Amino acid sequence: RAPTEFRFVVNRCCHILINHWHLKPNTRRAVQELVALFDHVPSPLRVHSRAPRRLRQLMQMFKRTEQYLTLQRLSIVMNDTPQYSNGSKPVANLIQRYPYLYEHCLLSEDSSQEYQQTVRQVQAMVQRRFDCDLSKYVTYQVRCANLRRNRAITSPRRIIQPVSNPTLLTERELASALKQFFGKVQGSYTYQDVARSFHTHSQHTACFKDFKEDLYEYLIASIDPAYGKQQFNKRLYTHLQNTLPEWDYQTPNEFMVVRTCTQLLNFLVVESPKRPNHYTFVDLITNLGTTITTGLLIKIVLICRKVKPYLEKRFSILFNHYESETRNSVPWLVPSLENLNIALSVHFGSADISCLNQIM
Hints:
Elements: H1 2-21, H2 25-36, H3 50-62, H4 66-77, H5 102-105, H6 113-149, H7 171-182, E1 184-186, E2 189-190, H8 191-202, H9 208-220, H10 225-241, H11 254-268, H12 279-288, H13 290-303, H14 308-322, H15 333-348
Antiparallel strand pairs: 1-2
Helix pairs in contact: 1-2, 1-3, 2-4, 7-15, 8-13, 9-10, 12-13, 13-15
C-alpha cells in the first residue's frame, strides 16, 4: 500500500510547485531542476536506519512509475529552448514540439484539476507559438517567391529578413506538406472542400451500409491506385463492412459515425498501448509517403471532428512506444509527428497561411 500512496503524494507535491512555477518565465526553469533532483536519490544500501532506508527505497520505486515518467516529459516541455534533437538522441527529447501530445503524455490518473489546467495552458501557449512561427515562415517564403518573380522589374533589390523553418522537415518536405494540407488535392478541391461535400451528401444517406460505402470511396480517392489494388483497398473495405454490421440498415447517426471513425483510426494507425501493432501505418508511409498518409487521417477528422483527440491519442501511443529509441532507429516517426503538427495547425489552429494562394 505504501508504494502506491507514496507515488501519488510525491506527484501531488511536485504538481503544486509546478502549477505555481510555470506562470513566470524566470521560475519555469525550476521545473527541470526539481525533476533532476530525482536523479540524485542516494542508494538505500548506504544508510542503516530503517526509516531513511525505506524512504530511499520508495523514492527509487517512484522513479519506475508512470507519474515520474510524465514529470520527466513535462520538464522537457517546460524547457524554453526549442528542441532540435539529432538522430542519436532519444525521441522523448522532442515532445515539446508536439502540443497535441501533451494531454495524453503529461497527464496521469491522479492529475489534479489545477495541474490539468497547467498542462492545457502550456499546450495553448506552445500551439500559438508554432502557429505564429509557421505563419511567419510561409509569409517569408511567399515574399521571397514574389521577389524572385518580379526581380526583373524590382529596383533597388529589397532585403527580406530571413525566417527559419519551424519544423524538423527539410524546406522541400515542408513545402510539400503545406501544398498538400492547404492546396488542392482532388482536382480543384482542397481537403476542406472534399470533406464538406462528403458531409453534405452523407446527411441524405438512407442507411449506414451506404454511408460506409461512400466513406470507402471518399478515403480511397487519396490512395495511389497501384498501391490500393495490392491489398490495402480490400482490407479497408472489409474493415468498414465489419464495423457495426448490426446497424447496416439503420439511418446513420452521430454515434455510428464517431464509432466508425475511431475504429478506422485504430485500423490505420494503432489500436492501444496493449496492442501497439502499427504495421498498416508504417506500410502506408512506406508506399504513399508521410504527407499523403497524414492527409488520409486528416480527411477522417474533417468529417468527424469529435475524433480529433482520438487521433492525437493514437500518435501519443506511438510516441510513448518509441520515446526511448533514437530518431535514427525509427526514421518514419518524427516526420509523421511533424506532418501531423502542420496539418493540425493548418486545419484546426490559428496559423494564417492564406498568402500561399499567391503562388499556388
